[in-house]
């Protein structure tokens, strides 16, 4: 059995609307993340049982649990929506994992709530399996993210352009607090509500700042740091979130809301896959700026807790926000260093003398030139970086082909090799397998037709993205140019 607390509902009642999931009489488990279940102290065989499946869709409420729809606001594509909230989701409650951490157990697709507005409160099998695949791939790549525990088909029909099979995704997170949660609290006009949500975020994520002179400022600084690190990690693997609205940005620094996200294939910073992002606001290359913009919205919402004097409060916010760019640059540069096969800048003196001491400027210069070549050739981002390992081992044929025989490569290789790049460092930083758009589409199409095997294979391959797996060659290969050119993603599906 499952035992859940209702910490959030107790601590921030103004943002918690008790609600029940829609019944799912034909519930059928499609995928269960046994590894995650076990790490949470949950028994996979219970979760597979009829009672377990009913719990996973929210139809059977664990004793003591108080499922709630969470209220939040959000800046969507730059415009403010004061009332969004969980329109088709529920926080079942929090779970104390064996490692001591408190985790949210959350449902998506569990029926319309008071925040549903015009929506039907439902989700289809395909998009929920997609979130499962993408979030678990991100976790395997070492990127902070919400995790997916299970996808359950509900037996309900969901009307989209055509009728689709409905599903519930069960996900976990270190919390579902968003920038938009704080914006909503601020919007109530009640400073006590703002204080509740900020205090709860501090208790949950950064108890170390609770003794600061201005704990809210300590929290803001910590969120700035967590987001700088997160977005740097996205950039380093070519992840495009696709809908970085403030309601889709966590305070924890975990990636959340896998709607229209996709990985970059042909390298071009202007890439935006989302069908509704026509202006490219959330394009790959814009992500750090958008994160900073979102953090400015967070600071605005928190101002009354920084200082009673507005001028001083704004100065504090600006100073804290100014840390974003250097923190992002440092995280990106540290990652780029590893992608190029150089040991960490602060590696100690007894490390291999050949691999320490590549200056930051040199890393930046090499990375900059390599990215120019990648962009000129519209080269596949992931496989090109992986081909660097071969180049470090002496064979640059694959890399040269990927870069379309760029004439600048020879000089670049000479300069790079002079620093003795370590292919072992590179192999641990440049994945072979990412959830390539054509593979995800293919697995989801099969799953929607009732065949879950391709999806199982895909998730298995993606679970060890840095390790070559025999028989998995096609999972490492880019899609054909036709697929790449026409690929679009969709949100809210
Ligand atoms: P998203 O684009 O997924 O971040 O969602 C933005 C807002 O729309 C959130 O408040 C969601 O809860 C809500 N929403 C998205 N899809 C639905 C749906 N099918 N029914 C009700 N609300 C939805
Ligand atoms: Mg969302």
UniProtKB/TrEMBL annotation:
Q: Which domain of life does the UniProt lineage start with?
A: Bacteria
Residues annotated as the enzyme's active site: 247 (proton acceptor)
What reaction does this catalyse?
L-seryl-[protein] + UTP = O-(5'-uridylyl)-L-seryl-[protein] + diphosphate; L-histidyl-[protein] + UTP = N(tele)-(5'-uridylyl)-L-histidyl-[protein] + diphosphate; L-tyrosyl-[protein] + ATP = O-(5'-adenylyl)-L-tyrosyl-[protein] + diphosphate; L-seryl-[protein] + ATP = 3-O-(5'-adenylyl)-L-seryl-[protein] + diphosphate
List residues binding Mg(2+). Answer: 248, 257
Gene Ontology terms, MF aspect: AMPylase activity; ATP binding; magnesium ion binding; manganese ion binding
Q: Which residues form a coiled coil?
A: none
| E.C. no | 2.7.7.-, 2.7.7.108
Q: Which Pfam families match?
A: SelO
Q: Which residues bind ATP?
A: 85, 87-88, 108, 120-121, 171, 178, 257
- Print the keywords alphabetically: ATP-binding, Magnesium, Manganese, Metal-binding, Nucleotide-binding, Nucleotidyltransferase, Transferase
Cofactor(s) needed by this chain: Mg(2+); Mn(2+)
- Of which family is this protein a member? Belongs to the SELO family.
The function of this protein is: Nucleotidyltransferase involved in the post-translational modification of proteins. It can catalyze the addition of adenosine monophosphate (AMP) or uridine monophosphate (UMP) to a protein, resulting in modifications known as AMPylation and UMPylation.
- Known HAMAP family for this protein? SelO
What this protein is called in its record is Protein nucleotidyltransferase YdiU
Species name for this entry? Microbacterium oleivorans
